[in-house]
Amino acid sequence: MPGKILLVIKREYLARVKKRSFLLATLITPLIFPTILGLFLWIALTDLPGESRRFIEVVDENNAYFLESNEMYAFSYEGLDREAAKVLVEEGQRFGLLYIPKLDLKNPQGIVFYCEETPSLTTLASLEAALKQKIEELRLLTSGIDPVVLSALKTDVSVQSVVVGQPGGDRVSHAVVNYAVGFIAGILIYTFIFVYGNQIMQGVIEEKSSRIIEILVSSLKPFQLMMGKILGIGAVGLTQFLIWILLISAVSSLVMGYFGMKMPQQQLMEMSGQPGVFPDTGQQDVGQMVQLLQGIDFLQLTLAFLIYFVGGYLLYGAFFAAIGAAVDSPSDAQQFMFPVTIPLLIAYMGLFIFVLDDPNSRVSYWLSIIPFTSPVAMMGRVSFGVPWHQLTLSIGLLVAGFLGTTWMAGKIYRIGILVHGTKVGYKVLWKWLTDNN
User: Fold this and answer.
1) What's phi and psi for 287, nearest 5 deg?
2) Are strands 112-115 and 161-163 parallel, antiparallel or unpaired?
3) Smallest Cα–Cα separation from 383: which of 159, 249, 184?
4) pLDDT tens profile 189-247
5) SS3 (DSSP) at 125
6) Model-level pTM?
7) CA–CA separation, 3 vs 9, rounded Å?
8) Which residue has the higher pLDDT, 171 or 17?
9) What number is the average pLDDT over the span 411-435?
10) DSSP code of 213?
11) 3-state class of 54 per DSSP?
């Protein structure tokens, strides 16, 4: 039996990796992200004619608010009235007009920004912040308080989080780093399950429609064919995924190097052993940055990613194979896709709403334990640190879930793969599941 499954795995794997579409997708897809990155870097770093700085005319009825120009906006004070300044905007000589009427410092109202196009939220926020600072300075002066003295008294405070009671001693953690790692890992598994699960379904439908499946089942059992197809396409996905990681890393390094920038890992290697400044705390020694990375259990993270990567795919792959066997065309499969994709969508939304926000909440715990949501949700928790007993329970239930879905899918696959021209509904599927033959 294992020998026949291996033959199907080999057939599925080689049939797909030899396709021109596989080679094109594998080589072109990694170029998309660095290309987009390079495009945005080029737009951000290249000064286009007339757009390197936007000029804003200021009409201040108070003669008290002088806004300092910056890299994005240059403020002009020509002493014009409001109507004359609006003409400059209409003629395109100014990006906008900031009109400041006589203001009551306790309740400043009536400030208007005129522009030929709807200003961005960033533009309005920048103007509001600059005016807010000027108004606060004037209110401090009228109250007899020197703003310079007050500014000198301000200080930044950074709180470092340390997780106590760990097997290897106290562990430094950083929520932003943990969030990023959990986000990337969860989204990768979610995408992988959807993309390659659909490939399983499409492959079964194509073989069933072409009647090739009838020849195959004459020499091996339907269950063997189903398992071989699931594992073979999964191996294709893993191969493609590993190639993407290597190519995206290499091409991204070249793109960022072209613009004189370095990848984070390159910066860390150059900084190691050299005194530096840690950006969040201002404390010296890059060892603190290394300490943050040491706060992540990479052994647990890597093992969990591989297990949930494979386990989640196998669990849902069985469902996709069963759907493909039950229908004659992709359009007929839509009615069965909805209940299969609902748990994945719940896991996806739960990752952002609950897991990454509070990985130790009750909702996060159950999302990471239930097999249908655990592949995505647990990866959002692992980077923050998960007790081994919870991880073991979750993996055990995932394995049990995979065995259960494989058993259910096998019963549907065994009958549905040879059924043609019959409209299949949930009632028919239930009959196939309860068939004891």
Assistant:
1) -55, -25
2) unpaired
3) 184
4) 998 888 888 888 888 888 777 777 666 666 777 777 888 888 888 888 888 878 877 87
5) helix
6) 0.66
7) 10
8) 17
9) 81
10) H
11) strand
Residue 49: both structure tokens together = 């004619």
- Structure tokens that stand for 130 in this block: 């600059």
CB of 2 within 8 A of CB of 224? no
Name the one residue in this structure whose structure tokens are 């072109």: 28
Question: Residue 72 has what DSSP assignment?
Answer: S
Query: How many other C-beta atoms can be found within 10 angstroms of the C-beta atom of residue 11?
Result: 14
- Separation of alpha carbons 435 and 211, rounded Å: 24
Evaluate whether 100 touches 111 at the Cβ level (below 8 Å): yes
| Identity of the residue numbered 303 | L
Please report the DSSP string for 155-199 in residue order: ------EEE-S-TTS-EEE-HHHHHHHHHHHHHHHHHHHHHHHHH
Q: Give Cα 126 to chain centroid, integer Å.
A: 28
What whole-number distance in Å separates Cα of residue 189 and Cα of residue 186?
Answer: 5
Per DSSP (E only), the strands in 118-242 are: 161-163, 171-173
Q: What is the pLDDT of residues 374-415, one digit of tens each?
A: 999 999 998 888 888 999 999 999 999 988 888 888 888 888
